[in-house]
Every structure is written in structure tokens, then in C-alpha cells.
Prior knowledge:
247 residues; mainly alpha
Amino acid sequence: MKKWFGFLILIICLAPEAFAQGVTLPNISLGFKSTQNPSDVVNTIKIIMILTVLTLAPAILIMMTSFTRLVIVLSFLRQAIGTQQMPPNQVIIGLALFLSLFIMSPYLSEINEKSLKPYLDSKISQEVAFNNAMSPLRKFMFNQTRDADLALFVKLAKIEQPKTRAEVPSSVLIPAFVISELKTAFQIGFIIYLPFLVIDLVVSSVLMAMGMMMLPPVVVSLPFKIMLFVLVDGWGLIVGSLVKSFG
């Protein structure tokens, strides 16, 4: 199961490059027939397992990249400004996705050179291709994972204390990476909230001093927050800082 799950991750990571090179896929016909060959039954079971795991594979792959931090920070930014559904969810998810591709491009290129091309040329086996594809992703996740979070999941997994990074299983590294990304995203979100919170406090104090208690402060502070965000080139600052945070 682990072998085929790893192969699915490899396929999803490298499918665009594969189709760009004109890879020919085999035909699959669905039907029922009797057989005396055990290998036919095994192949059918393998196809069913692949189709089952394939529904979850994209979500799993997203959790192994920079997408988590990006989409959370952008959501925090929208809430801090108070623009409700502007920008819409589709724009935030699309921006986070393309930024993830931009950030992960060096690692994807390494996967293409060391895993996809040799595997398509039949120079390496499926297991070697999977290990070569996981190596850049593990390197990226290790660089963004806190030692405390990694130690937590090592303890929860009840395994022997790893002496090197190579001894840390991916089943331990991935959840530790996700937890670290969530913590980092929330820290960045807190910093983003501060300047907009100051504007809300100033507007609320001014309205109370003027006796305009029936007027919601959000109505008055929203234009000022949007103006401040535009004047300081907020999108450039946020996106630039996010990309640099993965350096």
C-alpha cells in the first residue's frame, strides 16, 4: 500500500511534465470476465486501490508544500482588512496555488531531473523514482519544520530517536511540517492584524468622542484601512514577505 501511495504522489507531482513529453497511457477497459491467472486479479485490485487513494492524493500533496501557510495568511489578511468576501475565495486559493508553484519550482525541477526523466527512460525502478522524488520534498519540509514539532510526533509515534534526518520517516515528518506551518501562519497573521487594529481603535475613539455611538466603527475604518493598504503597496509587501519566509 505504501509503495502504491508513494507512486501516486509521484504521478501527481510530475504529471504535467510527463504529458508535455508526449507520454502514451495504456487503455483501461472495464468489464467482468473469468480468469485463471492470479496476476489479473492482483492488477485489478491494484487499480481499485489507486482509484481510491487518488481522491485524497491532491489534498495530501497540498499539505506537503507551501500552500498551507500561504492560504491561511491571505485569509487572515482579508479578515484583518474587513472586506468580507473581497477578494473572493477562488482568488485567494488561486493566488496561493500559483505562489506555491513559484516557491516549489526549484524542488519540482530537481524531481523532474532526478526522478521523472530517468523513470520515463527506464533507467531507474519505481521505488528508486519515488525515493528520488521524495528527497527534495523532505528537504523542503525539514527546512520549515520546528524541532519541537518534530520531536512531538517522534514521541507520539513511539519510535526510536532518529540520529539523522534520513532516519525520520515521512509519516512523522509530514504532520510535524503541517503543525509548524500552521503555527508560522498564525504568527504572521497576528502581525498583519496589528496595524489594522490600531486604525479600528483610533476610529472608535474618535466616534465616541464625537458622540456618534450609533455609527458602527467598521463603516468608517474600512475606507481608511483600504487606503493604507494600497498606499504602502500591501500586496507587494505581503507576497514578498511570504516568499522570503521560505528562504
